[in-house]
Amino acid sequence: MIGPYVLPDEVFDALAAGEGGRPAVLLLRRARRSRNLLLLRRALDGPCGGAAEAAAGLLAGVERVAPEAARSVIDGPAFGTWAARTLRDCPAHGRGGCAGRDFAALTVLAAVRAAHPARITVPVREGRLALPGLGTVTGLGEAPEALVVVETTAGPEGSPDPSAGNCRVRVLTAAGERVLPRDPSRPGHGWQPVAVLDARHRGLTLRLPLETAAPELPALDTASAGPAAWRELLRQAWELLVENHPRRAEELAAGLNGIVPLPAPARGVASATSRHAFGTVLTSWPADPERLALTLLHEFQHSKLSALTDLVTLYEPGGRPRLYAPWRPDPRPPGGLLQGIYAHLGDLAFWQDRSGRRHGPARADAAWRLAQTRAHVERGLTEAAAHVRLTDLGARFLERLARTVRDAEGDGGGSGGARLARAVARVQAGDEAVWRLRWAAADDAGTDRLAALWQSGRPAGPLPARDVRAATGAVAGPGPEFGRWAARQRGAERARPAREAADAVLAAPHRARGWAELAAAAAEEGRPGADLLRTRTELVRDLLLRLTPHQAATPPDTTSPRRPDPLALAAWLADTAADTDPAGAGPATDEQGAAGGTSQARPTHPARDLGRLGRGEPAESDPGPEPLVGDGFTIPAESGSGGVSEGSARSTGSWPGAPRAEDAAESGPGPEPGSAAELVASVEPGPGEGRAAGAQRGDGGGPGQNTGVSMSQNARSPLAKTSATG
Fold this sequence. Notes:
Layout: H1 9-16, H2 21-45, H3 49-65, H4 67-74, H5 79-88, H6 103-114, E1 118-123, E2 129-131, E3 135-137, E4 145-152, E5 167-173, E6 176-179, E7 191-193, E8 195-201, E9 204-210, H7 222-225, H8 227-244, H9 246-255, E10 258-261, E11 269-272, E12 280-283, H10 289-311, H11 334-357, H12 361-387, H13 392-407, H14 417-439, H15 444-456, H16 480-488, H17 498-507, H18 512-525, H19 530-535, H20 537-552, H21 566-573, E13 633-635, E14 645-646, E15 650-651, E16 659-660, H22 693-697
Parallel strand pairs: 10-12
Antiparallel strand pairs: 1-4, 2-3, 3-7, 4-5, 5-6, 8-9, 11-12, 11-13, 13-14, 15-16
């Protein structure tokens, strides 16, 4: 029987704070194993079940004699993604290429590790037979399938070591027979093994397969990033993590189960996490140990939150469907926003440590990245608190998370903290303004109404509703022009004067960089309406464009109303102006800015007001439940806008959840919402795969009580006549 999983309060709170420790990770891993078994049961009961029945029988036989060998496959990188794809979308079902057939390739690894005799038919694609966890047989020609035979020859029964030489693997096709090397970890003629990366430091061991046998993933470039290079890089990164982040290193040792190499982007490092592959990190060649260490911390946060949301409900349907995340170029669904916030806690811990250990320019760079990461998380918390319909547990989760952000605050290296905060705030204000211009659409009728009110000298009243367009296809970043401007802010004492920035906008109202400069300058000078220039940029711009033609149409020999001004429009929209221009052109504006304007170096965030975290605002139209989308992670190779940003990744092959790397660190393509390209996607609970009633409502209970979350309802093991312990 699959037992229930109860998440104690202290474990939930520890996970919400960003860590959780080894016991919490082991609990999440066991719960995910039960989930995978339940998904397998559903797959076997579904239309693809017949194609997977033989492989399920083989796995059941392995489980009876070597449970650990079976569990290593169930916990592995490919199991959950295969099950989710088979249940959600089997594009070849009914056409002879049902995804259920791919399950056979996964079970070969269990048979080899258990030295269990087996005969199983496995699909062949483009002359390649991919056996996840073992390797790839190449050069099989046009054969559509191959018979894989595992024969026991020597060694103790049930040994999980595939290099022990206790079995022989034969691959038979219509064209002939291929025998794999006695030690499958060694290359051979037409055989490319999956390398295993080992790292050990201070008694803590990390052992990860470099998974290159997933179907249609690009082959590893052995000249520049072969297994030896990956092994040495992981060794150095592991030393860094164990020395400087020992508690998180223990989590990684307990939860990581593989690295999937991705093609390198044009610049930087691309990485991602599959919603269904707990503990698997997909990443391009990181080039240096620090980047690999940061990538492992960031991506494992995604895995932890994905597994946690199997057990608890953090938010409800409703709220705004598309939200702003400062680390992404595209709008994010509520689940994707929460994923990004949580993953950045790993970045926050990393840069906080590095800013205290580095010296000179390296320390200044780490301090910048720390300050920017903290600002990103703060802004994400504000967005989630305002627009995500959090459950009680979700509000509690973000409250604990916000405390971690608050406790991590500091001057980022000891000197110039205020200046650094102002620089980060400028970049963040400009980035959000550019994002609004790109994705937000102002209501035409509402903008026309505002234009008429402005011309008549009346107050603006309620503002039109917000609307953010959905991203489709490839999504690029804000562009090199914004990147150059943002990079200069690191060395700037102050923003460009707001009056000067407003004049530049009047001269070129369609130029996004001008609005970025104006939003940053208005915030730094404390101008009335500065928040609107950042969060409703599209409304101010569209209103300015509507009013400008009216000025040119003024009859000659009459008193012309003063030309609309973006600073004046923003102040009027914010209803903060004290006087109205008697000419009827709108409120007057002080050329030197608002009297008593104060610098707004950093925005307020929920860490300073935990009571703000709640259920968010209801959506104007409920879009229904959305897939939980995680953020593909990109580390820039050079300092562009500064700091660590999140890009996006897409599906590249038939292996479910395998992403395509970004084309560039700053301008990467994004997934289509709701498609198989979304690396983190939800599976609707089916029979036997549910949450406890208390968890469904988000009831957290009082202090010292358990959250009472049950993973299953005493479902039978999907493996025939065997029991699977969670």
